[in-house]
């Protein structure tokens, strides 16, 4: 530096922590406009020859200015999310920053943090954070300021929810409907699921389920369409959902494990396990039989109540 060998351990004590030499890189932290301006020279040497490269360091003194990088005129944030409002004026040395919201000074702490580089971070964002923000930058050479508005957007809100429980019978049509409202500048999308699996859009699926936004119709419902349905509404800043359980009642399933025991000349005992009730209790059974010489099934007993 200025023709003298730069050795960090021989620098004044107040400069030793600011100068860092790593291989071919010299780093000077927290530039001092009075102490650091100088002619710096780097020497590279091997067994064959020596080369020098020189550069002059001048520390600029600059009044803060937002002409090139003013605050964004409008910054959008999602309610419940986080947002960074960037304050990056030209200035030398680095200025001190003051933030105001709607003409009131903002302190750094809690949900609002003012960083060393001047940026303001708000997390989480609430509706009360919406308003006009002012960033003031000041150093010993002057002051400048810039304005910007923060607009807080809400996620979608349900205005019509699904009935929590729907009971129907097989071969009937079932209509499910949920509707949501959102900010005018945001688009919303509806997603439907059945037992946790997304239902393909009607245009791409040849099924008896038809979807039109927040409306879902199941035509000629079967037992397989029973279960849990969810209507999910999504926008760029959030999502919300409504759920229902659809119970489909239908004929009982076939009995299982039918067997004949304790056969005698005049009687026999028939035993079985109940089939699926499909929403309603089994009232009675019909027992039919046939012989080895007659293949036709004949009702032996009606309205049998199982024990």
Automatic annotation (TrEMBL):
Which InterPro entries does this entry report, sorted A to Z? FN3_dom, FN3_sf, Ig-like_dom, Ig-like_dom_sf, Ig-like_fold, Ig_I-set, Ig_sub, Ig_sub2
Limits of the Ig-like domain: 64-151, 156-247
Q: Which CDD domains match?
A: FN3 (cd00063)
Q: Which residues form the Fibronectin type-III domain?
A: 254-307
Q: Which UniProt keywords apply?
A: Disulfide bond, Glycoprotein, Immunoglobulin domain, Membrane, Repeat
GO terms for cellular component: axon; plasma membrane
Q: Where in the cell is it found?
A: Membrane
Domain of life of the source = Eukaryota
Question: Which Pfam families does the protein's record reference?
Answer: I-set (PF07679), Ig_3 (PF13927)
State any GO BP term from the record.
Answer: cell-cell adhesion
* Chief place of localization: membrane
Q: Which PANTHER family match?
A: CONTACTIN (PTHR44170:SF6), PROTEIN SIDEKICK (PTHR44170)
UniProt protein name:
Ig-like domain-containing protein
The organism encoding this protein is Homalodisca liturata
């Amino acid at each position: 530096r200025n023709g003298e060998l730069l050795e960090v351990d021989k620098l004044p004590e107040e400069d030793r922590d600011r100068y860092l030499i790593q291989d071919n890189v010299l780093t000077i932290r927290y530039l001092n406009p009075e102490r650091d301006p100088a002619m710096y020279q780097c020497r590279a040497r091997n067994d064959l020859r020596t080369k020098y490269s020189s550069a002059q360091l001048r520390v600029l003194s600059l009044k803060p200015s937002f002409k090139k990088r003013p605050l964004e005129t409008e910054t959008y944030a999602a309610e419940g999310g986080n947002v960074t409002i960037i304050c990056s004026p030209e200035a030398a040395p680095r200025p001190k920053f003051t933030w105001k919201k709607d003409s009131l000074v903002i302190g750094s702490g809690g949900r609002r943090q003012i960083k060393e580089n001047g940026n303001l971070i708000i997390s989480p964002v609430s509706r009360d954070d919406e308003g006009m923000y002012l960033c003031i930058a000041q150093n010993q050479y002057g002051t400048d300021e810039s304005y910007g508005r923060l607009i807080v957007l809400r996620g979608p809100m349900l205005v019509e929810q699904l009935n929590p429980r729907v009971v129907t019978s097989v071969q009937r049509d079932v209509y499910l409907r949920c509707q949501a409202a959102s900010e005018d500048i945001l688009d919303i999308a509806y997603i439907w699921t059945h037992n946790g699996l997304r239902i393909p859009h009607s245009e791409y699926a040849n099924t008896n389920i038809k979807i039109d936004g927040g409306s879902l119709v199941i035509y000629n419902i079967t037992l397989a369409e029973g279960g849990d349905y969810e209507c999910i509404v999504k926008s760029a800043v959030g999502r919300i959902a409504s759920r229902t359980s659809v119970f489909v009642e239908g004929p009982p399933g076939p009995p299982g494990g039918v067997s004949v025991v304790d056969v005698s000349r005049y009687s026999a005992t028939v035993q079985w396990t109940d089939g699926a009730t499909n929403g309603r209790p089994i009232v009675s059974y019909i027992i039919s039989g046939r012989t080895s010489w007659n293949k036709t099934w004949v009702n032996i007993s009606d309205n049998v109540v199982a024990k």
